[in-house]
């Protein structure tokens, strides 16, 4: 059995070698020649898994050490009996803490308090539900929008129209698909409050980047259309800008790698189903008050400093992302 692995997936080096022939490549360099005689791929978002890559190969298993799967052509995989696995929820607390840093910057810059804002959470899955829970505890009025969950569960979810009309801050936590691509576009922006802030830590294509920039609304982006080749004007006009590292916590990365190793082990019936990197302490979730978060978040994640570095060196987007010093989850 032969496995191609993205070399930037942390902690995985040496784990599968007792069970398979393993080759490591940069994600962008995993091409049809690399995968032709591979049985399995373990990748990140930089490897587009589609017919062009997979046609004529032996691949029957793909695992991505990410929440998102939009870089995988799942229809093609279904039609060719290729199992696909991802790592849902792996870095939810890492993204929560990135959003916390963004909210802290917005609120303190305005010299206001959480009680002065209505926060619209769009996409209430693993990440969005955490953001909503913590934001309520901090004093924000929270509106939750999740059309699939609203259809299946009912409850207190609100339609997107209510988010656009009522939210002072909109934070996006949806997957990227045909229903969410450019969910925030010029038409949606025209229905927002004039001073509303847009936060995006989901996928770049969920927001029409240039439409957001041209609208004059304040925005905080971690994800970008066209990345790693960013639109410099969109980047420079962002309130805060980071290089797709919202979920880059130490525990989030460990969780993601453990989840793809577990999926591999279960698929190929090998004894790694309980594997977790020994060098990483699992996170210990806890409640945290607004004032404590505001005073402590910079110690764990200096979002302003990270934004300044990216704006000064946008050509290093990929290097900043791949060489990121994973931060500790602390709540």
Structure description:
The chain has 331 residues and is α/β, with parallel strands linked by helices. Strand 8, helix 8 and strand 9 form a beta-alpha-beta unit. It is built from 14 helices and eleven strands. A six-stranded parallel sheet has the order 7-6-8-9-10-11, sandwiched between helices. Strands 2-1-3-4-5 form a five-stranded parallel sheet. It has helices at residues 32-35, 51-54, 74-79, 92-109, 126-138, 147-153, 160-166, 186-190, 209-215, 232-237, 250-268, 290-300, 303-312, 317-322; strands at residues 2-6, 21-25, 40-43, 61-64, 83-85, 118-122, 141-145, 169-172, 197-200, 218-221, 240-241. It is globular. It has two domains: 2-86, Rossmann fold, CATH 3.40.50.720; 92-246 and 291-322, 3-Layer(aba) Sandwich (Rossmann fold), CATH 3.40.50.720.
CATH architecture of the largest domain, by name, is 3-Layer(aba) Sandwich
- Characterize the largest beta sheet: strand count, sense, and whether it forms a barrel: 6 strands, parallel
Quaternary form: single chain
Give the domain tally.
Answer: 2
Low-confidence stretches: none
Topology-level CATH name of the largest domain: Rossmann fold
Mean pLDDT equals: 97
Shape: globular
**DSSP strand tally:** 11
What's the order of the H and E elements? EEHEHEHEHEHEHHEHEHEHEHHHH
Q: Which strand order does the major sheet show?
A: 7-6-8-9-10-11
**Count the helices. How many?**
14
What is the CATH C level class of the largest domain, in words?
Alpha Beta
Portion of residues within helices: 25-40%
Secondary-structure class: alpha/beta
- Taking all Cα atoms into account, the compactness measure Rg is 20 Å
